[in-house]
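Re: Re: token formats

Sure, here are both.
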Amino acid sequence: MATKRKITPPTLPKKQPLQLKTPEPAPSTAEVEEVLSGLDRFDIRILRELQSDGRLTNAELSERIGLSPAPCWRRVKRLEQEGYISGYHAQLNRHKLGLGVIAFVRLYADVNTGAVTRELRQALVKLPEVMDVHHISGEGSFEITVLATDLESYSRFAMETLINLPHVKDLHTSFSLGEVKASRELPLAHLSYSK
């Protein structure tokens, strides 16, 4: 006679509540139209905030500008792709790094032709001591800003490098006696949203 075995049903794991990942909301038609028509108030706020602090997380940025994280992230990516945001940089303290001298130098070329200007511009851009290069109107050819550790090091740089650049016939230097304002933040008031 066959014995009956008791069959026990398999133990099933406890049901966990279903957790769905919330998808990013699709941009609304109004948002797409605003973005396509240029910078709107959210774009301008993003630019202001990131210019002030490029290390903001997307969550912090979205909270500051009053937009949810997903559209905020999309806007930042678009602003980067379209070139409104060209990079993120650490701002170093020149005093801590021993760069105590700021020199404003006006360079005079022997001739102001297109070829000479291009050659001199290319030479200036390659020099790490040169912070800014401006092709100027009026007297002179270029106005540059140079950082140096002290007056002696600037003097060596001017006499050994700057005066020997192609087509430089003269240079005039003014020194900063103290920085009153040294900002790299661009003024954005002219972008105030008027739509």
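Second one below.
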Amino acid sequence: MQRREFLSTFAAAGVAAAVQDQPKIQRKGRIKQGLMRTNFGANSPLSFDDQCKVAARLGCYGFDLINPPDWPILRKYGLVPTMGPTGGVTIQDGLIRRELHDQIEKSMRASIDQCAANGVRNMITVGGQRRGMSYAEGADNCVAYFNRIKGYAEDKGVTICMEVMNSKYDSNNTLGRPDQICDHLAWGVEVCKRVNSPRVKILFDIYHVQIMDGNLVQNIKENFQWIAHFHTGGVPGRNELDETQEINYRVVAKTIADLGFTGYISHEFRPGPGKDPIKSIEQAVEIMDV
């Protein structure tokens, strides 16, 4: 075994053992927090099983965007899939592509069935890249698609969550999503209002909305009825929720809790260079525990 491989294996075993030996932290319960695999770093030595141990110990509810074959691992630790799969869309080709609506609907119905059968209450979707399309045409196309699928989602009790993403950092897919049509909260909310379904709502990514629109507290309050899920991430850089970034996440969390939000807030930050991912996750969860 190479020295680097040995050290990685040793580190993973050490973290896993430490997690097993520590009691579960009891949270206040006003904010239901989730994690993502990205919180552990791009080259984490931890298996998903060990990541679930960390999440369970910290009092988290589950993970976003975990593929269905791994859902049993979540349940092994009393966790849930806090956000289900996309249902046939990609960052490039999303709901605004009318020519793909038949294909997307077939795939999304299957994903809705899978979510409903496993008690997964939310699934993610995206508008897609504009490629010259106007915001008005994109909104019309998106509304047309949602009107096709909303009845099925309502019957199955699964909420389709359209994510707001920033298009400012169009040269870096880690920091932004190039050419995305749902790059302002107002556009996404207007689509939801036109569809007018309790099962078509917004995934409010706090990191992205801060970059594009700011005014986080007021935007959350004014559009609360259309929001089903939140993501976090430090601005700038999409790193830890610490003193190096501009969002006061404690205030944001209290705002959301005071509004009576019953959904999930999942962390999507990436650990910065030289940072201990586990400590960063612990800090983020503590900040949001209001």
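Confidence is low (pLDDT under 50) at residues 1-10. The domain at 28-288 is CATH 3.20.20.150 (TIM Barrel).
- S.
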